[in-house]
């Protein structure tokens, strides 16, 4: 199957980035949102990122315009009927995600269509089971910022058809120009299973007063050649996303390193979610 008609559910931080990647790859993209306001915010996010790509010399103005022309926003999910690939990037709420998959199952007519979730750590099998076609459901997990980070995890549940995972892996590499890795449906897949305990450890270090956030970040940038330190990275990922991911990895594995630090929970309770709200551990 040649994938040409795609959709993304949600246009928050990740959904907008994923929609941009698909549109820049020449695909027709419908972005499904819950309200006109959310759609306008998602569209603005994509336009800002495309403008930055042009400014950075990664894209010509004409390519940016062509990408925009391939994107359409809707608040009516039934418009996704003819889609061949749908990537769900709604908020990290299991019930919301399950209901989206159940609705997609009713709405999308093509039996060959592939349904994917960009969840950072929730079990893919639970979304697959909300549909009548679990063998065509898998994880396609991008990294923030999606237009920049090369990696994509292709996550198979115990019921995913291996042929579907292979086709998606090839699509990620050949059409999206990204680097695919295949992961199993385990808590945190590959990257977050390693990254989230690390971010939690850094927050615990800050919480204990062992070092300042600036010194923790400088340590990992200058001492381990990371592009940014863990406290700044937690702000970039979003502290709510970090908390959800940590909690779900901890719940399933009991890994003490993934136990969410109290400070992380308090920051989220305070609405200090990182870059996206203008303040997290740092101010933006
Ligand atoms: N579109 C296309 N390219 C862009 C762009 C855009 N909108 N914005 C920037 N770029 C390009 C730049 O041209 C540059 O490319 P170059 O190195 O070839 O010149 C590159 O991206 C870096 O951009 P900048 O120099 O403007 O930005 P910084 O140097 O400040 O880097 C960063 C910013 C890319 C965020 C970098 O700090 C980084 O990689 N940080 C780590 C991010 C990371 O680890 N993300 C993963 C988080 S985990 C996750 O998302 C999973 C989830 O489930 C929790």
From TrEMBL:
The keyword DNA-binding does not apply. The record marks 141 as: Important for catalytic activity. InterPro entries: 3-OHacyl-CoA_DH, 3-OHacyl-CoA_DH_NAD-bd, 3HC_DH_C, 6-PGluconate_DH-like_C_sf, 6PGD_dom2, NAD(P)-bd_dom_sf. Pathway: Lipid metabolism; butanoate metabolism. Residues 6-185 form the 3-hydroxyacyl-CoA dehydrogenase NAD binding domain. One of its GO terms (molecular function) is 3-hydroxybutyryl-CoA dehydrogenase activity. This is 3-hydroxybutyryl-CoA dehydrogenase. It comes from Brevibacterium casei.
